[in-house]
Amino acid sequence: MKKKVVAILLLVLILPAFVFAGGGKESAGAAGSSSPVTITVGTSGPGSVAFTWVSTLSTLLEQEKADVRIRVAGDMPDVEAFRIMEKAAAGVDASLGTGTTLARALSAKEPFKPDETFKNLRVLFPLGLSPVQTVARQDSGITKFSDFNGKRISGGAVGSGPDTFMREFFPKMYPNIKVEIVPMAFSGVSSAMQDKKIDGYLTFGSAPYPAIVETQSLVKINFIDIEDDVRTRWFKEHPEHHTMKIAAGSYETQTKEIVSLGHVAHLVTNTNLSEQVAYYLTKRILDPKFKESLIKATAAWAAAFEGLENNTFFDDVKGLGLRLHPGAARAYEEAGYDVSGIK
Asked: Helix or strand or coil: residue 340?
């Protein structure tokens, strides 16, 4: 446990290119120039698996002195990033794009406005498969979702994917219970659990999720399944979600498999990103040695490659009605992937 927490803290401390939401001055140009191109990637802040995914990628690109580098913009919800990228405004060049938020953006559902359209978003590659992971303090007595009645739960910052999901999920799936939603950054949920300011929290992300690892070092927790009948009802309106399972032993004290639902987490950009930069980054992801380094740095990256190999990633892009960035599509075709219908 201590080794996992220390590893996460060390990763954050050695990041060569990290800022909190604000973006960078450099624009994405052509890779291969004498000086590296730096792009800004939006993500949830420290404590989220999205931060771990992107910061790990950033660190490895820096270490190998790559032609393209990543500046991590933390605490930037994907809702905000989508709006910036759609307008091709300064501040962010790419962002985490959860299947949940992408589906809502493309169908103009809250938190997006009815007249908002997103025609310029393009997909680069998967960051991971993101099951809903829900935990509760053991002393709260919560062992299933209906037990959250009258309790306090967080889904991260307002406007984040988990928060948006939760605000729809509880009223639709559990209309007869009342929960108090407590917005906060995932960097604060562990201390909030310890101080009993919240009874549990819900997030999307691959295991081991950094915030959950930290929480386990402070308090005893229960892992909460999403029941079969609830998933079946939810899928009728949400084809962007799929049944996902978290293997027993993914966390200390987790003795049985967690059954949940989830989505693919994508790295999304816009049509403004140069084809050379998109091609370069996707080629790096597809390089076997680079893949090995990513997974060695953080096991949470393994699910991204699982999504590539079993076509979940490509099927999800197609199902959402999105397209790959032309540079990424070229890299996939060269690697032998079928990207027909999404390029």
From this structure: coil
Q: Are 227 and 215 in contact (CB under 8 A)?
A: no
Mention every residue, 6+ apart, whose C-beta is less than 8 A from residue 227: 144, 145
193: its two tokens:
């659990």
Residue 276, token pair as written in the block? 């050379």
Average pLDDT, the chain: 89
CATH code for the part of the protein at 131-262: 3.40.190.10
Both structure tokens of 245: 């399972």
User: What is the amino acid identity at position 77?
Assistant: P
pLDDT in tens, 76-107: 889 999 999 999 999 999 999 988 889 999 99
Q: Which fold has domain 2-128+266-334?
A: D-Maltodextrin-Binding Protein; domain 2 (3.40.190)
Measured from the Cβ of residue 343, the count of other Cβ atoms closer than 10 Å reads 15
**Alpha carbons 40 and 297: distance in angstroms, whole number:** 21
Give me the sign of the Cα torsion angle 160, 164, 167, 170: negative
Q: CA 41, CA 52: separation in Å to the nearest integer?
A: 12
What token pair was written down for 124? 């680069």
Identity (one letter) of the amino acid at 90? A
pTM assigned to the model = 0.74
**Spatial CB neighbours of 55, under 8 Å, sequence gap ≥ 6:** 11, 12, 15, 18, 43, 72
> What is the rounded CA–CA span in Å between residue 71 and residue 18?
5
Domains 2-128+266-334 and 131-262 share a fold: yes
Instruction: Name the token pair of 192.
Output: 């909030």
Q: What angle do CA 37, 38, 42 make, to 5 degrees?
A: 145
CB atoms within 10 A of CB 60: 17
Nearest in space to 95 (alpha carbons), one of 63, 115, 72: 72
Domain ranges of the chain: 2-128+266-334, 131-262
